[in-house]
Amino acid sequence: MPADPTAHPRRAPTGHPEFRYLLGRALPFLVIVLAPLADALTPPAERFDRFLIAAPALAAATWSARGTAAIGALAMAATGFTAAARGGDLHPALLGNEVLLSVVVLAAAVSAHLRERRETELRQVGAVAEAAQSALLRPLPPRLGTVDLRLLYEASAACAHVGGDFYKALEVRDGVRIMIGDVQGKGLPAVEAASLLLGSFREAAYTAPDLPAIARRLEASMAHYAERAPESEAADRFSTVLLAEIPDDRPVIRLLSCGHPAPVVQRGGTVETVEFSAPSVPVHLPVPVDAPFTVEEVPFGPGDRLLMFTDGVSEARDESGAFYPLERRLRAWADEPTDRIPELLREDLDRFAAHGLDDDTTALLVVRDGPAAGRRTPSPPLAGSLRA
Length: 388
Fold this sequence. Notes:
Elements: H1 17-41, H2 54-59, H3 65-86, H4 91-136, E1 143-144, E2 147-154, E3 165-172, E4 175-183, H5 188-204, H6 211-228, E5 239-247, E6 252-258, E7 264-267, E8 270-273, E9 294-299, E10 305-309, H7 311-314, H8 326-332, H9 341-352, E11 361-368, H10 370-373, E12 385-387
Antiparallel strand pairs: 1-2, 2-11, 3-4, 4-5, 5-6, 6-9, 7-8, 7-10, 9-12, 10-11
């Protein structure tokens, strides 16, 4: 599977939106056909022709202004046909019905025009936001240094493919550094905040001596931006962040969590969630906290896999409210090829979640390559925490 954020467009969470759209388009015509038919098959006291007034109102939801007006004209014609078929002296009542229906048709056509204009504006805003996000979240290379990377990224349909998740992986002098995160909220302010964090990470990853130094740079970047542009919505956003560092010469991975969900590591058939002894608070959280950053260093040898993800994965629930059993799924997929894992995860999440994937969903699979990691003589792996 290519590490491309646009490789798998989000499917509809429930139902078939195309069918619902077509049904909405057909409903006005069903009313125009069925109302006169019901009026003809029932006693004169039962006046089903009054339901024809619903046809233009329904049309305004899916048809253009001209289409709505045309459907309204059909409804008015059907009203006249029904009155003629019923017979009798109905001219005063017919005139009143036609006047009332013409007013509804006019209002429905105006509503359809306003809806079309609003939809055009939303499409334009969505296109700008998608372009901005695509420029920020470039496809990851399938390999960096001694690790292979496989990405699953899908933004929620509810926010028109514009989400708050972000990721970046860079090959530095002695290894690979990775960041994955989730900005509070969605939309353009979330994209703006993500761009600030990505730019800060891109600059710090090459020069910072360790992960705590990178975390401090991220915090400083958001604080400086809030001072320069306090009116910006992005200045009020906080973000969870998970930083990772894979050195070339040691079979370990170093992890630092700023309020982010803990990753899952797989070694053969063993799957475990990384335990953080003291996770830090999210970046730019408006709470005064003065605590050291804690780095967890865990074994990560040839063939090991580490899955980093956002809360779109960890907080997915089924109809009973149970959380997604990520560890159990990864244990079942232990023998699956690396390229298959993101696709299996996406399909399984879509089936599991009660309302589909209704949140941004990002998962980055990091795999230690055997031959590359074995070119040097590794030092014994360390367990425990490093504080800075």
